Amino acid sequence: MPVFFEKKQLVTPGELLAEGEYLAGENTYLEGNKVYAQRIGLADAENKKVNVVALRAFYVPKPGDIVIGTVIEVGFNGWTVDIKSPYTALLRASDVLSRPFKPQNDELSQVLNAGDLIVAKIASYDRAHDPQLTVAEPGLGKITRGQIMRVTPTKIPRVIGKKGSMISQIKAATGCQIILGVNGVVLVTGKTPEDEDLAIMAIQKIEAESHTTGLTDRITQLLKDEKAKSEEKKNE
Amino acid sequence: MSATLTRVKQKQIGQLIDAGKRIDGRGLTDYREFTIEEGLIERAEGSARIRLGKTEVLVGVKIETGEPFPDTPNDGVLTVNTELVPLASPDFEAGPPDEKSIEIARIVDRGIRESKAVCSDKLVIEAGKKVFVVFVDVYVLNHDGNLIDAAALAAVAALTNTKMPNYEIKDGEVKTKTGYTPLPLNSRPITVTIAKINGKLLVDPGIEEEQVMEARISMAINDDGNICAVQKGCPGFFTPQELLEASKLAQEKAAEMRKKLDW
Amino acid sequence: MSEKPEKLIDKKGIRSDGRKADELRPLKLEVGVIPNADGSAYIEHGKNKILVGVYGPREMHPKHLQQSDRMVIRCRYHMAPFSVQERKSPAPSRREVELSKVIKEALEPSVFMDLYPRSGIDVFIEVLQADGGTRCASITAASLAIADAGLPLRDLVVGCAAGKIDDTVVLDLYDAEDKLGAADVPVALMPNLNAVTLLQMDGILTPAEFDTAVNMAIEGCKKIYVMQKEALRAKYMTAKEELKEEVEE
User: Which of A220, B45, B225, C15 is least surrounded, with the fewest CB atoms within 10 Å of its CB?
Assistant: First the structure.
């Protein structure tokens, strides 16, 4: 019962990965008893399950995900939010306002207006309806400081690293607070713009080189070098 | 909007096809009964109406004179247009031709043009200056499936009874005389459309079958049995083996129809 | 500046552009060329130069075009006014409308349409320079652009045409051969599934010639497919090293 790829081989959509008693895992599909790749990515097999870690995919909402979005429209009883997914999300006014909501009296745009950034959680999502958001938890809500950047959603795990090792490294070196939205939108908040820029640079490097080896060390080196440069500048 | 086929109906069609039958009782390779009436629009230079099952298509041919295209000074002009008029189906809307109507027109045009049915060099009045322009207008009057074959057959039938006005060149000007000459036709191409449902091939899909078919292929066959136009349609696929089968089936049916029509 | 060769293929089987009967024109493919698009690709096939940009999947507007249980693909095949010998008006011609339709129908079978209901993708094809076989080249590039946009696919779709010139069935006609030849047969294929998703013919062929032409085009498709996959890989492979570090999911 053969497998037709080497571990972590770069495969393209439609490539035959395995034949026989195999299960179709992430980003693969089954046709008869053959497993094919659906997206470009790195193929792997765990026991009898064949997976492809996609190098290019868009974000599909899952209840419980923490996402960062932009308010696009203020509606009658809530806001429409762009979460960089095929579906726009909805945030109900009743979720944000702790008291009962009166459409005539309450001006929703005073609370959140078009263009505002928020950190929210996907409260619910199914095939027939757009995702519903909630900000009724600590740490969620309107974003007032920091810089936003975008990362391909499939690379977010790489940015986090093994047991959070990669992201902790960046946080420690730059002193920044970093929120990684599962939808690929990242918020970096630091004491100075330079600290934020360094964190962004590091994350961009991880995205560009995510499928290579020795990345952790190169990031460590990058953080060290840049810090040294800025120290020099201060001393001039 | 027409009712989408219910799931029950879809299943029924599929089950019947698996057993080699169709919802209207036909076999997979049976065309519906059809009749063609010619010359019913006297104002047109040629006309024909086909009733293929409940699908009804009327074609009118108008002949005008005009200038040839600059790169073909010795050829007349043939142009095919299709109107899916709103009264023909709850799904048709008034307005300029949409992609469905344009596709049908172009397939019909291809069959006629590539089979050289109309001898465009016989449409020349004065080389480089004046030629006949043949307008073939396809009017769908009732849509019950397989507009392509209905339109193609009616168009060729209309051309068979098309008369061109006689003319003479007097003092450097083209003037019409009394009398008419039949339009010279080289070939009478026949188009056969085959649908694929549940892996089986069937000819002349009805409107409900069109809503469940995975793919369709239309082939225009000329008098010599050669293929002069092919168009695969619908977002599905054919395997090379199915294409071979479809090709054979199309030739068979075209020969059958040619005999029946005495073309 | 139009070249009208006298004989399209000579006694030695060499065509007016120097190729043999079963030879493809030179091809170049690049993925990810339009930064604003969600997916994009560029193809040069002979003198054809075609750019494809894909937007989506995104919420489908106008809303009445949405399908509650599946995605919608909108495809626009368009030729730039300067792409052909005689300037072409920018307004969509009937040919462009038909090609937009058949190209969409060639690409759709490769996409898992029911995974993203109510959404849509827009495939914009711009032919910057045309020299015969643009619909096939467009399909090859469009499929790459759709894969680049991150959509899950059954397979890539690849296009190639065959035809008949001077009584010989040949592969990959360029514009002069198409205009002066006896027939043109464009084909699109999902190679791993042996599925033909586009097939057209205009001209005159005996049933046997038609069969030969279709098979020849299919073989041409398979050759181009190798290059298509390479182009997709090239975008994502900066180093050939394999990833050894474990990734936390």
Answer: B225
Can you tell me the ipTM of this complex? 0.86
At residue A101, the pLDDT reads: 65
Phi, psi of B213 (to 5 degrees): -70, 145
Residue B208: pLDDT band by 50, 70, 90 thresholds? very high
Q: What CA–CA distance (Å, rounded) separates A204 from A209? A: 9
* Interface contact flag, B244 C190, Cβ < 8 Å: no
Q: Which CATH code fits B16-261? A: 3.30.230.70
Q: Is residue A80 domain-shared with residue A117, that is, in the same domain? A: yes
Please tell me whether residues A71 and A48 are part of one structural domain: no
Q: What distance in Å separates the CA atoms of residue B33 and residue C239, rounded to the nearest whole number? A: 66
Residues of C in contact with B222 (CB under 8 A): 204
- What percent of chain C is modeled with pLDDT above 90? 77
Residues A155 and A225 in one domain: yes
Which of A210-219, B61-70, C80-89, C145-154 is most confident?
C145-154
Report how many domains make up chain A. Answer: 3
Q: Cβ–Cβ of B230/C210 closer than 8 Å? A: yes
**Is C154's CB within 8 Å of A38's CB?**
yes
C107, C153 contact by CB (below 8 A): no
- What domains are defined for chain C? 27-233 (3.30.230.70)
Chain C residues in contact with A13 by the CB 8 A cut-off are: 110, 147, 152-156
- Name the phi and psi angles at C13, rounded to 5: 80, 20
- Domain spans, chain B: 16-261
CA separation for the pair A185, A67 (Å, rounded): 7
- A211 contacts C56? CB cut-off 8 A: no
